[in-house]
Amino acid sequence: MGAASGPSGRATPGPAGTPAGTLAGMAPSGDDDLDWLYGRDDRRRSDPEPTQVLPPEALAAGRPAAPAQPPRPVPDPTPPQPYRPSSQAYGGPPTQAYGPPTQAYGPPQAPGPVRPRPAPPPQGPPGGPPPGGASGKPPKRKRPVRRVLAVLAALLAALLVWLIAVPVYAWSRIERVDDVPAGERPGNQPGTTVLLVGSDSREGLTKAEKKKLGTGSTAGQRTDTIMILSIPPGGKPALISVPRDSYVPIPGNGTNKINAAYAFGGPELLVQTVEQNTGLRIDAYTEIGFGGFVNVIDALGGIEMCLPKAIKDADSHLNLKKGCQTLSGTNALGYVRMRKADPLGDLGRVQRQRQMLAAIAKESASPATVINPVRYVTLATATADAITIGDDTTFIEMARMANAMRKVSSGGGFTLTVPVSNPGASTPVGSAVLWHESKAKAMFADVARGDTSDLAKYAK
To answer: If residue 386 lies in a helix (H) or strand (E), which one and from where to where?
Structure first.
C-alpha cells in the first residue's frame, strides 16, 4: 500500500520523527479516532510538561516564585464507598468489600494532632486493687430487701430456738412420782386422758407462809382438786371436775371420800380409784401443791377474775370486791379453795377451780408472756418447780395437755362436772357427794370411746 496523497497527489509526511511511508506517517493527523492505532496517544503522554512562565513580580524581586499550584479539586463530603459486590439480588446477604476502603480523590491530607483520650477516674483506693478484685468486675450491690429478709429470718430462727429451749430446760427440773397402779387396769383407749390433781400439801411452807395463805396446819396430804382432762383424737377436749367429797369405793379401803385415796396410797392408789370408778385409763398424771400454785400465779403477774359479787371469807382470808380485778397468788389460792361462803359448797368450788385453771392456761399462752423473755423464763421455771408428774408421763403428753387447756380457756372445749344425784348425802364418813349412776356411766362411756360430741348436755 502506497503513502497517503495530499491534494497535490504527493504523500504528506507524518509527524516529526516518523519516517515517511509508514502507517504512522501516513495517518491523517486530524483523525482522533485513529490515535490508538498510530500510537499518537502514547506520544502525547510522553511529551514533557510545558515550561511555566514566571510572573513579573517574581522577576523583579530577583527570586523565583513558587510554582503555581493547579486548583485542587473539592472532595465530595460523602466519603466514597468501596466497591461491595452484593449478593442480595440473588437472595443472599451482602458480601464484605475486598480490601480497605478507597481514599477520596486528591493528594493525601497531613494527619492532624492526636488528642489523647482522658483516662477514667480511679474507682478504688490509691495503690489498691482494682474494684471487683482481681477480675476487675465491679462488685454487686446487695439489695436492701434481701438484707432485711435475712435479718428477719435470723430473728425468727432465734425466737424459735428460744421458745423450744426454755421448756426443754424446765422439763429437766420437774419432779416425778410413781403413779402406775398395780393390778388390772382398763385397756388403751383413743386419745389421751390426763389426771390433774391439786393437793393440800403444806410441804416447803413456813409457819408464816401457812398463816398468810390460810392453809392451816393439817397433817398428811389430801387431794384438794381432782380433774380429768379428756383429749380425743378429733373434736373438742373436755375438762371434767370430780368433787373431792365424792363417795366411791377405794380399792382395799372400803368406801370413802375420793380425796382420801391419796392419803391412803398416794398417786398410785388415787389413779387406781379413778380408773375403777370411771372406766377410763389414765395416760398422764400431773400434781401441784399450795405453794407451787401461788408461785405460778405470781410469775404471771396475777390473774384477772370477774366476780359476780363481793366475797368475804375468814377461813380463806378473802375480802374481795365485786367486779373484774387482778388476783395475786395468795388471793387466787383462797378463791379456788373457798367452800363455806359458797352456797353451792363443793360444787361451786370445782367451777371456780376450772375457771382459774383456764385463765392460767390462757395467760400463759398470751403474747405478753411469750415475747417477754424474763416473764417467759420465770413462768417456765416456776411451773417446773411447782408440779410433779408421773414416771410414764411424756413431754408430748404434757404438750397436748397445754394445747387442750388453751382450747378450753378460749371456749373451744367443754367444762363440766360429774353428774351428781345428791351433793350432801349423809354417809359413815360424813356429808358426801353421790354421783348420778346412769348419767355418770353414760358420760364416761362417751369419753372412753374418744367421742366428746355429746358432752354438751353435761356442761355446767
So the answer is: helix 373-386
**Residue 88 scores a pLDDT above 70:** no
- Calpha distance 166→380 (Å, rounded): 7
Residue 316's Cα: distance from chain center in Å? 49
The count of domains in the chain is 1
* Confidence at residue 389, expressed as pLDDT on a 0 to 100 scale: 93
Q: Which residues, listed in sequence order, are joined to residue 432 by a DSSP beta bridge?
A: 425
Domain CATH number, residue 298: 3.40.630.190
The most confident of the ranges 21-35, 189-203, 374-388 is 374-388
3-state secondary structure of 319: strand
The phi, psi pair for 275, rounded to 5°, reads -65, -40
Q: Which residue has the higher pLDDT, 222 or 15?
A: 222
DSSP letter for each residue of 113-176: PPPPPPPPPP-S-TTSPPTTGGGTPPPPPPPHHHHHHHHHHHHHHHHHHHHHHHHHHHHTT-EE
Q: What is the pLDDT of residues 71-81, one digit of tens each?
A: 566 555 555 55
Phi, psi (rounded to 5 degrees) for 255: -110, 135
Grid cell listed for 70: 493547579
pLDDT tens-place string over residues 401-452? 989 998 998 889 999 999 999 998 999 999 999 999 999 999 999 999 998 9
Alpha-carbon span 13 to 6, nearest angstrom: 10
State whether residue 181 is helix, strand or coil: coil
**Predicted pLDDT at 1:** 44
Provide the grid cell at 396. Answer: 408430748
* DSSP tally for the chain: helices H, then strands E: 14, 15
Alpha carbon distance 287, 201 (integer Å): 11
31, part of any domain: no
Question: How confident is the model at residue 238, as a pLDDT?
Answer: 93
Residue 27 lies in a domain: no
Please report whether residue 438 resides in a domain: yes
Percentage above 90 pLDDT, the chain = 32
Please indicate, yes or no, if residue 247 is contained in any of the structural domains: yes
In sequence order, the 6+-apart residues with CB closer than 8 A to the CB of 318 are 311, 312, 331, 334, 335, 338, 341
Cα 28 to Cα 7: distance, rounded to the nearest angstrom: 13
pLDDT tens by residue, 279-324: 999 999 999 887 888 889 999 999 998 888 888 887 777 888 889 9
Which three cell numbers mark 364? 400463759
Note down the domain range covering 320. Answer: 170-458
